[in-house]
Amino acid sequence: MLKRFQDFQAYRKQGKQIILLFCLDLFILLLALISSLIPMRYSQLFTVGFLLLDIFCLMYTLVFSKRNSSIIKNLEESFLHNNYGTSVNKIKRFHKLMEENLFEYHFQPIIHARTGDIYAYEALMRTNTEVIGMQPVEILDLAAKENRLYDIEKYTFYNTLKIMKDNSNTFQTRKLFINSVSSHQLFDEDFNLLYQKYGSLFKDIVIEITEATLLNDDGIKLLHKRLQKTNFQLALDDYGAGYSNASILLTSNPNFVKIDHSLIHNINVDSKKQHLVSNLVNFANHNQIKIIAEGIESYEELEYVISIGVDYIQGFYTAKPNPIIIDTISEDLLAKIRELNYKHFCDTSELMIV
94-353: which CATH number, 2.60.40.10, 3.20.20.450, 3.20.20.80, 3.20.20.70? Predict the structure, then answer.
């Protein structure tokens, strides 16, 4: 892919020929001017000849420019559609996003399943609809194709930690979950600079990794080395969405496991999902791992995950991602969470008495 793109870029350099033709045109015009100023035999004839040649060169340049600009534009559109599945305009918007760091972030609360308090926020990448108008999956796809995932990782950490610092009154002791492209961890130099600038915040950040960006053994060692040095925590995201989650769980040794929404959706009526998630909660309880149920979209799902003892909940039902960092959930939802906990506690107590 990269080689084909480089070849295409080389072909685009044909546009330089247009510049050279304009330079030649100016040079001939300069010769005509010189011949008109220097008194010599046939100077007028030379001047007229140069002017005619200049006019011919200028006309050829204009025709060449118009013809090739159309060819280049068509080739560009064709190349991008065939190899990137996108348009020139989208590529330009992506480059503008990267060059000017125009990333925005929405924050979705992660709620304590027992108290209903906001425990943390997850920072979710967004862009301005009018200026960039690209979805996170589109950005990551183009970044992978243009070898810019490392830049995404760097921007994400610097941007979100700055927001966290600027909103310290809201965050207080709450944590910030940051999605990491863990296969492109920051180089030591960049990581050390980040720590020097925001080191005081590291104890309250949680780095999310996924199976899609699975680390090799060296990568996992580096991640845990930095974890021990800076006291951030680790979350395994999208658990249940892939095929080798058990291996990742044992290898990465996370502080949190976020159960993918595909396992949470309709869990209240799906016995297979109930069995899988209940086993995971039981495993986590015996291994000092906190469970976060993602993608809660209904009261029934909320009720079930609370009943089996998940630690935290996250989803559109509890709170949608918002550019404004909210300080509390609605009173109605807070009351429902506390009521469900009271109900579950009473049911459990009755069973223990019996």
Answer: 3.20.20.450
Domain regions of the chain by residue span: 2-83, 94-353
Task: Please give the pLDDT value at position 11.
Answer: 55
Mean pLDDT per 10-residue segment, the chain (354 residues): 50 63 74 72 69 75 66 56 64 92 97 96 94 92 92 97 96 95 91 96 94 71 91 92 72 92 95 95 95 97 96 96 94 94 69 38
pLDDT tens figures, 99-109: 999 999 999 99
SS3 sequence of the chain: CHHHHHHHHHHHCCHHHHHHHHHHHHHHHHHHHHHHHCCCCCHHHHHHHHHHHHHHHHHHHHHHHHHHHHHHHHHHHHHHHHHCCCCHHHHHHHHHHHHHCCEEEEEEEEEECCCCCEEEEEEEEEECCCCCCCCHHHHHHHHHHCCCHHHHHHHHHHHHHHHHHHCHHHHCCCEEEEECCHHHCCCHHHHHHHHHHHHHHHHHEEEEECHHHCCCHHHHHHHHHHHHHHCCEEEEEEECCCCCHHHHHHHHCCCEEEECHHHHCCHHHCHHHHHHHHHHHHHHHCCCCEEEECCCCCHHHHHHHHHCCCCEECCCCCCCCECCCCCCCCHHHHHHHHHHHHHHHHHHHHHHHC
